[in-house]
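user: can you give me the structure for this one chain? tokens are fine.
assistant: on it. calling the predictor now.
[tool input]
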Amino acid sequence: MRSSFSFPSGYIIRYARNFADRWESYLLFVLQRPLELLSYNRLRVIKLVSITIFIAVLSAWLLSTNAWFIGVVLLSGILSYAVSSVVVWFLIFILDPIQILQSSSDKTLILALCQGKIIGAVLIDSGGTSSFLLRLYIVSSHRCRGIGSSLVRHLLLRTTTPVYVLALPGLQRFYGRLGFTEINPRNLPYGLQGYNMVFDPSRIPAPIDS
């Protein structure tokens, strides 16, 4: 067993106990996370909405004239874009995090709490000879305090199998500091493709500094 570490003062860490814990964690991913992404990309959203309104107005004007065919094409394009956006939103932000609600011996959900309220969660699938870090989220007002890294370290200190994660470009340095190394997804066997970083407990000790 590797050395332990101290969780940041004022916070506690514990495993999910029941469905209520999993449900509250699920809401973090399907409510707060999408709103954050929208706020971070608000200029892009404003541009897309403006363009959509312009094309809709142009389509309506064309439909009122003899250029009905062009109007129908433009309006169809808007509807197709809207439907595809809703489907993608549903898959990524609602259906994908559904794993958090599933009670399974292979999946472990660990929570970070402040004053009794869940402010972060990490989900890992540890079935088989490999483990997969599926979800990690910390409420924005509690970030940059070592909460996320402490949750991940808590897992790494207890794992005996390689832990794979799909690290987005902005998070690769974060996982790198925790002992994860980059890998080429193309070189991975079937079932592991899509992950781009791995923590190997047999080769890399989990860092214990804060």
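assistant: here you go. Helices lie at 19-40, 42-64, 68-95, 147-156, 172-177. The CA atoms of residues 178 and 207 lie 6 Å apart.
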